[in-house]
């Protein structure tokens, strides 16, 4: 993201950049050929593009009506270039999971699905196509090796359970930033720069709390994930000087702990609720909660509405927020910055230098079904995925419409997203240690209810008392969770833990 502005400036000169919503003019067929590398001549590219001409593929998605027009334009352009027709299957989001499950059960699944429940397991069951060979070949729309069309780490979320095969592809990634109210910053004499550490953040929030005009930070806890963004940052910082990940990252070696390795760590004691860093986390979060909006435990999207209305100084939100501001005509003078890091002045376990996360992996959203391959339409379906991830055509059109961060190289972000250029990335990976209290669905539900009660302003429970409660309530379910975990035989790795 540091290079985003330079990228945007250089990319402006690129001929024929596509865009959605009438922002830019679509490229012509000749533009596609001209971008090909010497490995493919213009004539060869055209031949490859048209080799599935006359095929119709079905693409099911659960996106809102705001994107329909852009999808139709993308489909028209795709057919112009390839002769392949995309038949759209538009399923309401509320019905999506049930619908997809029913289609696979009945053997009536479409050629391409936007998303599905447990795609890695479905791949292991033979229901999804292995895309690995295609990633080593050219994207026929630009002549680049398809895998090289993506930013670093972009395809990590598209891997199979064993980490060896690509089972899907992605266009966007979900980023999180600290959003701040510029007008509130000015009114409170806090300057014009966002805090970079939690020490600075807390000082600014304290100013807002004492002034009383603005809520220091808005938070939602009714669905859990908003606090999860904070949770991960805290755990990654507090445990940065431990060797927990090094000891446990042996089942799926990827630099962080997956579900199986969390179970392994809890079973072997490498992860222990008695670690004082866990107690420190809960102490800090209890202190943090003093600056949040009233009824944060029950709050849903009103946490965002408070910020939109100019009543809040800070909140954490996703990279989709700038697009929402534009699409909904929200009048808010805001800025965006990297999330602050837990510094050594804030906690005895804090960091001496900033923790800069690696750019998130792309959201694995597009899968080709085995039914599609069996019907002889696999090549056509893959072409559609390559079109959607081509910086000149589908990817640019899509990003212009949805205004989300892209994991496709050389796509130009809309100017409305310029604030996200302030979000910097590095090489640090999250530990995923927050999963230590969520090692099964049953345990996760229990934890969140008890955690919400602990954070409640009326609660007098200490962090030490809360840890003891979690030990008593959650850990008895560990062996059951290990027995029920099917991806790997966790117990077979116990002797490998050092």
Would you write up a description of this structure?
- With 498 residues, the chain is of the alpha/beta class.
- It folds into two domains: 18-173 and 362-411, Periplasmic binding protein-like II (D-Maltodextrin-Binding Protein, domain 2); 176-358 and 427-492, 3-Layer(aba) Sandwich (D-Maltodextrin-Binding Protein, domain 2).
- The protein is built from 21 helices and eight strands.
- The chain has helices at residues 4-11, 29-34, 42-50, 68-82, 96-106, 119-124, 132-135, 182-187, 198-211, 225-238, 244-248, 259-268, 276-288, 302-308, 321-327, 370-374, 378-388, 394-402, 441-455, 463-474, 478-484, and strands spanning 56-61, 85-90, 112-113, 176-181, 215-217, 312-318, 334-337, 367-368.
- The strands form two sheets. A four-stranded mixed beta sheet has the order 2-1-3-8. The protein has a four-stranded mixed beta sheet with strand order 5-6-4-7.
- α10 (225-238) crosses α13 and α19 packs antiparallel against α20.
- Mean pLDDT is 88; it is low at 1-39.
Mean pLDDT: 88
Class derived from helix and strand content: alpha/beta
The tally of helices reads 21
CATH homology-level superfamily of the largest domain = Periplasmic binding protein-like II
**Count of discrete structural domains:** 2
Binned strand content? 5-15%
Tell how many strands the DSSP assignment holds: 8
- Specify Rg, calculated over alpha carbons: 24 Å
Give the proportion of residues in helices. Answer: 25-40%
What gross morphology would you assign?
A: globular
The CATH architecture of the largest domain comes to: 3-Layer(aba) Sandwich
Order of helices and strands: HHHEHEHEHHEHHEHHHHHEHEEHHHHHH
Assigned CATH class of the largest domain: Alpha Beta
Could you please say which CATH topology of the largest domain applies here? Answer: D-Maltodextrin-Binding Protein, domain 2
